[in-house]
């Protein structure tokens, strides 16, 4: 296990099972449609890959980068559209693939944007749902795991752009946060 991780919350196998369950469910629910899987950069890339390959049905793939974070552990209120998707969503069925829904602000922003552009339907499949953190009222239609209100990393989720490559989801050691001002993570022991 990575030396900066205190505890693994969801193992490789847990995540694989969740991707299988949700991928199969989506394929069934959208069997007569060709939805656009909208993967939210950068955190949802591993989740998107694992869910989509469990779907034996017609799907398209696109990406969006919407950020409410500025490198730390606290969610900022302001949403920035960094990279827009390239597909015309008018009349299309969209499945947003997210890594985690916390306050719900990012998700709400994307859902409103897609509806404004004329999407026929918008549903959400998130690896993690941090329900306790919710500030705005948004529903996650497909949930991998209900996650407690801790800052988690791995499997796409980062702390200062690190740990996205870990194949599991875990909690960082507190010392990683406390040392953040004195040194960069890369130069730590
Ligand atoms: P909101 O608050 O808009 O946030 O629902 C959603 C986005 O915030 C990020 N986020 C996290 N990232 N560990 C992370 O690495 C976390 O525990 C965490 N909580 C929220 C994430 O980018 C998500 O898309
Ligand atoms: Mg994200």
UniProtKB/TrEMBL annotation:
Annotated metabolic or biological route of this protein: Purine metabolism; IMP biosynthesis via salvage pathway; IMP from hypoxanthine: step 1/1; Purine metabolism; GMP biosynthesis via salvage pathway; GMP from guanine: step 1/1
SUPFAM superfamilies in alphabetical order: PRTase-like
Main subcellular localisation: cytoplasm
Entry EC number(s): 2.4.2.8
Cofactors (names): Mg(2+)
Ranges for domain Phosphoribosyltransferase: 13-160
Domain of life of the source: Bacteria
Family: Belongs to the purine/pyrimidine phosphoribosyltransferase family.
PANTHER family: HYPOXANTHINE PHOSPHORIBOSYLTRANSFERASE (PTHR43340:SF1), HYPOXANTHINE-GUANINE PHOSPHORIBOSYLTRANSFERASE (PTHR43340)
Name of this protein: Hypoxanthine phosphoribosyltransferase
Natural source organism: Periweissella beninensis
């Amino acid at each position: 296990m990575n030396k900066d991780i205190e505890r693994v919350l969801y193992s490789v196998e847990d995540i694989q099972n969740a991707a299988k369950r949700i991928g199969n469910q989506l394929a069934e629910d959208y069997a007569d449609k060709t939805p656009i899987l909208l993967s939210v950069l950068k955190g949802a890339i591993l989740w998107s890959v694992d869910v989509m390959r469990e779907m034996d049905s017609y799907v398209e793939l696109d990406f969006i980068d919407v950020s409410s974070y500025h490198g730390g552990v606290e969610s900022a209120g302001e949403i920035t559209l960094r990279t827009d998707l390239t597909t015309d969503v008018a009349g299309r069925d969209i499945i947003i693939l997210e890594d985690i829904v916390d306050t719900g602000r990012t998700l709400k922003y994307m859902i409103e944007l897609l509806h404004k552009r004329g999407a026929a339907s918008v549903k959400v499949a998130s690896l993690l749902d941090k329900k306790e953190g919710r500030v705005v009222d948004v529903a996650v239609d497909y949930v991998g795991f209900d996650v407690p209100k801790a800052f988690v990393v791995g499997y796409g989720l980062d702390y200062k752009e690190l740990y996205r490559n870990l194949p599991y989801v875990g909690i960082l050691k507190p010392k990683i946060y406390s040392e953040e001002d004195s040194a960069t993570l890369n130069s730590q022991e």
